[in-house]
Amino acid sequence: MQRQSRDPFDASTIPDDLAPIATKLSTMLPGDWRSLRPVIDRLKCVKCGLCWLYCPVQCVVEKPRWFEFDLAVCKGCGICAQECPHRAISMIEEAGR
Question: DSSP secondary structure string, 17-52?
């Protein structure tokens, strides 16, 4: 077997404060840092499901006659409002945060 051209990597030479790594589980949910939240106009909603399809965090919950949002999971990105063909979803600013 041939010897390597360089010595193996020595991890003890890396400073302790170079790149901190998260070691504790955070209880923060996406809804905790959201600045806008979706609101559905149920008169315009035809339950096509495009909001459910395009939501990146799957916070859209199907009800018997419409869709609702799980605001604890919703991050407020607004993709649902952009993709809604009937403009039944509007993004409003969070109050009291």
Answer: TSS----S-----GGGS-SEEEEE-TTT-----HHH
The tokens describing 16, both together, are 């302790």
Torsion of CA 77, 44, 70, 37, to 10 degrees: 40
Structure tokens, 74: 């919703």
pLDDT digits 0-9 by tens, 74-86: 999 999 999 999 9
φ, ψ (nearest 5 deg) of residue 89: -115, 130
pTM comes to 0.69
Asked if residues 47 and 61 have their Cβ atoms less than 8 Å apart, the reply is no
The number of residues making up the chain comes to 97
